[in-house]
Amino acid sequence: MADQLIRATAANGGIRVVGVITTRLTEEARQRHQLSYVATAALGRTMASGLLLASSMKRPESRVNIRVKGNGPLGGILVDAGLDGTVRGYVDNPDVELPPNAKGKLDVGGAVGSDGYLYVVRDVGYGYPYSSTVQLVSGEIGDDVASYLVSSEQTPSALMVGVFVGAEGVTAAGGVLVQVLPRAARDEALVETLESRMAALTGFTPLLQAGKSLQQIFADLLGDMGLQIMPDTQMLRFHCGCSFDRMLGALKILGQDELRDMIEKDNGAEATCHFCNEVYRANSDQLEQLILELQAEA
User: Would the pLDDT of 185 be above 70?
Assistant: First the structure.
């Protein structure tokens, strides 16, 4: 099933629901960064969360940055997701591995740590970005992002994200976000019904592994509440905007002396993009050209 995002409403527009399938892009991230099992799950959950958060923005160039910094051995997680369906991200320590937790699942909470913070920056495409910080609830990512939505955006929300990764790689990944909008938030019975239905789900990836589509998952959750599924399906992909030219631009900032030192000691320069792990190499001639450009500009 292709990586995709679909949107829907229910309860006469009082409920907003968004679902994403991110299996292929999570597998690409695993391969690019050579992630361990638990690091794959942590980054995959965060990328799915970023895409779900970005889905409510308006301008095509809008983006969301999620940074998770806990006290666990995984270190930090950084994800950049856009309304255009692109996402990228990395973890500080990609080779960290932990035994399964008490439920027999990948111990994402232990790898991330429950003592720390979740930082969310929303770039709406103009002006200054909006930033929010909340304390981690569990380190399991889904709980933490849902806590952010409630505390920072005052929107009752239920979010479930998951990644299934085995010896053959990522075979299921994605998530679903259900939000009760102000017009329906006063209906306590409606909120309780949604909470109980979300709590009854054993996870998101088992639904995908069972062959369910996002539309079927939505129908199971909200089919009796006037569900209206939007006709447009948005394709999602792992994408990084880095390039060789950008790398040269970054090297140019270092100045003539540093560039000359690179030529003399290393016969060139090498840079690796944190987000996608792409390696760029510049030879001595290319560095000499940068020096000439700096001299001309001076």
Answer: no
Q: Are 48 and 174 in contact (CB under 8 A)?
A: yes
pLDDT in tens, 132-171: 999 999 999 999 999 999 888 777 888 999 999 999 999 9
- Rounded to an integer, what distance in angstroms lies between the CA atom of residue 167 and that of residue 58? 39
Helix (H) or strand (E) holding 19: strand 15-21
- Rounded distance, CA 103 to CA 125, Å? 42
Residue 27 has pLDDT above 70, yes or no: yes
Least confident of 98-112, 194-208, 217-231, 252-266: 194-208
Domains of the chain plus CATH, in order, are 4-238 (3.55.30.10), 244-297 (3.90.1280.10)
| Residues paired with residue 268 on neighbouring β-strands, in sequence order | 283
Q: Is the pLDDT of residue 290 over 80?
A: yes
At residue 15, the 3 state secondary structure works out as: strand
Question: Can you tell me the distance from the alpha carbon of 184 to that of 186, in angstroms, rounded to the nearest whole number?
Answer: 5
**Residues 176-206: b if buried by 16+ CB within 10 A, e if exposed:** bbbbbeeebbeeeebbeebeeebeebeebbe
Residue 83, token pair as written in the block: 């309304």
Q: For residues 243 and 57, give the distance between their C-alpha atoms in angstroms, rounded to a whole number.
A: 27
Q: Give me the pLDDT at residue 209, please.
A: 92
What backbone phi and psi angles, to 5 degrees, belong to 175? -175, 170
